[in-house]
Amino acid sequence: MAGRSESEIFFDALALNGVDVRADGKAERLLEPFAAELAAALLVSQGQLMPGAAEALAAVAKLDQVVQTVLTGNGKPTAMLKLRAFGLDGFLDFDIGGYGSEAYPRGTLLRVARQRASDKHGVTFGERATVYVADSARDVDAARIGGASSLAVASGRASAAELRDAGADAVLPDLTDTTGLITLITRLTEPPGQT
Known about the structure:
By secondary structure, the protein is mostly helical.
């Protein structure tokens, strides 16, 4: 299921079980409360914060002209619930994010989120200025399609070797080296020809 959106998983499960999904919107209305309940239950029983995640988000938030958001297979309410549970929501702009409940493939969703950021902040966020922190080969591919650099983290979904093989621009073993993370983000967003 790595890299698949909630809506993909939800609608595939409905189809596999012969549930009639029509354009009346009923299935979509079921998805968000279902996802929120599932996320809350999983967080209580199995959730844990990735080492260094809070420090990484705080450090990146201090960089000039940086806007942080999420690009996730989760629906917006679920993403907000998960991040709020670990106190990470204050570092992110959820209005400009890309969510699994939207009808875009992830690479296109990255472009949509970047345009939302540009519209909201009145600044063009170009491809070179966009870094997608990824943890699966599918995320690395979405970064390429969406015109962003990919900074992959070997969180356990994929090994560092798998992420490199997928074409990640940089790979970290985890998020505990905040200085290394900032260095990589800075390098990935530098205009060509600068060092």
